[in-house]
Write a structure and sequence with these properties.
7-stranded mixed β-sheet; alpha/beta; 648 residues; 20% strand
């Protein structure tokens, strides 16, 4: 990854110096210039009803099929339908794609497509000088501009002179392109996002066949609408090729060397997590049961899993969060791989049942797609602020393992790992993703089934204990000496009847017990079971082993942290990096790793929750670098903060 994000014009100048310039036929036979770039960051922005997420998704899909590495950042308002033309109603989609390995959606867009004044005002501060701005001039009426505080038109008052401005009447051009389809003006206007997509597809030489097929499939029941969208898409492409305003197009070659050999697809975090859950159930030989209540940004998992009944998946949309996890725990008791999905507010409601799962010692996956809080907070924004809630947010001593994916594609592997722990150790497990990972996407190598772990589970089938008089009985809390897991007895198995419930159990027999000594034994045993979970040792990236500063991350900070570390190393700095997947228990060598460095910096999208745990557990002066603005870290800002720590 290069150390600076440059605009297309800057990158083009570099390409010019290298002679990487050629032409394609354009209007009246004139050749249009083609410049080669190593990467580009594009942001589509408009009203929630302008289809920016769909536009971004289609551009991303074609970019993935072309073979670029990519990373995306959808960003949409929490309101179901904010007032049109207002700043709170702006929806955007940012895509970073390159001919090499990249890690983040990019700090700043090289190209901004603004569908109205609100989209321009909400995003212009992020565009570096020299960047390209494509605006829909049809929307820049006085009333629309006044709604967002523009006293004069920014297209005419000189405020955009530092940018490469392309004023395009997108609405007018779309309506003109669709005049023969017999659509109303309002129906035709809805296709302006496809016109913009066609224009950008021309600018960056994206494939078109996939988008046309997608539109015909999506609107199969409305063929006139399908063909209208295809026509608008083609009109946008042709406009780019023929207009004199766009004299240059750009090429970003496939990232041939960025990926190991294999079959790839673009995948979002929630989709990867869903596939990981299905794969885990297949590898375990267990039916998958999801008990869930819809909540942003976790609902997509419920939607996706409901499509896979052919894999033995059963989904239950409950009336509330408590019912969702109650049903899931019942399914775990019945012998299923049980899952409940939610976000932070739902975790609070599920806490008592999670404690019950700890007491019953049954496998249960609690998937928390974190978002900004507290309370309802920022439903569509990202945060990492549920770590301490996952660690301690239950009454009594109720330890629960915690696993956190680091990228959208890694959500697949994290789901398998969470299932391994839950099934092996008979315990609920937290899987902590977040909105940034859930909605973001990247290329994912589809694994061969032979690469997946064996998660086969052996249920109890008969007596497992012999009394003093020689009688063989079943003890539901007789433990595996290696894992301390209790047997999993499926209801209905003859001879395995046992007491169930939330009151403390007697060690071994599972009978109700109020004995103080037994309670202490059970509390310490449950804690020892979690402490003894086998997790891989922490790997440290420290070339030359000369660094004095370690940056320690977890979850979705992986991309920005790694990008920042690359920038610092490219500038000659020495810095080490490590990233935690397992947050409870920590890797066994974490204390030794921390002790090697003079300074430990922990970037988090919270107010320092992991740093607090590290300081308390290892007595290390871990320094927090925190951010809670609902957005992921920017690599450049993070690199500057880490440089200060190195120089301190």
């Amino acid at each position: 990854m290069t150390s600076q994000v440059s605009s297309p014009s800057d990158q083009a100048d570099e390409a010019d110096e290298a002679g990487d310039r050629r032409g394609i036929p354009g209007q009246h036979g004139v050749e249009k210039e083609v410049r080669r770039l190593d990467r580009v960051i594009i942001r589509f922005a408009g009203d929630s009803g302008d289809g920016m997420q769909l536009t971004g998704d289609r551009f991303t899909s074609e970019t993935a099929s072309f073979g670029n590495d990519l990373s995306t950042l959808p960003n949409f308002p929490a309101e179901i339908r904010a007032p049109a033309g207002t700043l709170p109603g702006v929806s955007s989609f940012q895509l970073h794609f390159a001919d090499h390995d990249i890690l983040t959606p990019g700090d700043a867009p090289n190209v901004l497509v603004a569908m109205n004044p609100a989209a321009l005002k909400a995003n212009i501060a992020d565009v570096p000088l020299g960047g390209e701005i494509i605006v829909n001039t049809d929307e820049f009426a006085k009333r629309a501009m006044a709604k967002v505080g523009y006293a004069t038109s920014p297209l005419e008052d000189g405020s955009l002179d530092g940018y490469r401005l392309h004023p395009v009447p997108l609405t007018t051009l779309t309506i003109e392109a669709l005049k023969d389809f017999g659509l109303s003006r309002k129906e035709a206007e809805r296709s302006k996002n496809m016109f913009a997509l066609g224009l950008l597809s021309w600018m960056y030489h994206r494939p078109t066949e996939g988008t046309e097929n997608f539109l015909r499939t999506k609107f199969a029941k409305k063929p006139q609408i399908a063909e209208a969208n295809v026509a608008a898409f083609r009109a946008g492409w042709n406009f780019g090729e023929t207009t004199e305003d766009f004299a240059v197009s750009y090429e970003v070659s496939p990232a041939v060397t960025a990926f190991p050999a294999g079959t790839y697809r673009n995948i979002s975090g929630n989709l990867a997590l869903s596939y990981g859950l299905v794969a885990a159930s297949q590898q375990a030989g267990l039916p998958l049961y999801l008990g869930s209540y819809p909540i942003t940004p976790a609902s997509d998992i419920l939607h996706e899993l409901s499509k896979h009944k052919n894999f033995g998946v059963r989904t239950f949309q409950a009336e509330d969060e408590i019912a969702g996890i109650g049903a899931a725990l019942g399914a775990a008791f019945g012998g299923a791989l049980a899952v409940t999905t939610t976000s932070g507010p739902g975790v609070a409601l599920k806490s008592e049942t999670i404690g019950l799962a700890v007491s019953l010692e049954l496998p249960l996956l609690v998937v928390d797609i974190q978002r900004g809080g507290p309370s309802t907070g920022l439903p569509t924004k990202t945060e990492q602020a549920d770590l301490l809630q996952a660690m301690y947010g239950r009454n009594g001593e109720a330890p629960v393992p915690i696993v956190a994916p680091r990228t959208p594609a890694d959500c697949f592997d994290a789901a398998l790992e969470a299932a391994r722990i839950a099934l092996t150790y008979r315990t609920p497990v937290f899987l902590l993703s977040d909105g940034y990972l859930a909605n973001g996407s990247e290329p994912w190598r589809i694994p061969d089934t032979s690469e997946l772990p064996d998660l086969t589970v052996a249920f109890a089938t008969g007596p497992n204990h012999t009394l003093a008089d020689g009688t063989e009985v079943f003890w539901p809390y007789k433990r595996d000496p290696r894992t301390l897991a209790r047997p999993w007895a499926v209801p209905g198995t003859p001879g395995l009847e046992h007491r169930i419930g939330g009151i403390e159990k007697q060690d071994g027999t599972g009978n109700i017990s109020y004995d103080p000594a037994n309670h202490e034994l059970m509390v310490r045993t449950r804690q020892a079971k979690i402490d003894g979970i086998a997790v891989p040792e922490l790997e440290v990236d420290d070339p030359g082993a000369t660094a004095r500063t370690l940056v320690l991350g977890w979850g979705s900070t992986y991309g920005p942290v790694t990008a920042a570390v690359r920038r610092l190393r490219a500038a000659g700095e020495s810095i080490a990096q490590a990233h935690l997947r397992h947050l409870n228990p920590f890797p066994g060598n974490l204390g030794e790793v921390l002790g090697r460095y003079d300074r430990v910096v922990v970037p988090e999208m919270n107010l320092g929750q992991l740093a607090t745990l590290i300081r308390a557990r290892y007595l290390v002066d871990a320094r927090s670098h925190t951010q809670v603005n609902g957005m992921p870290f920017k690599a450049e800002q993070l690199a500057a903060a880490l440089k200060e720590s190195i120089d301190d």
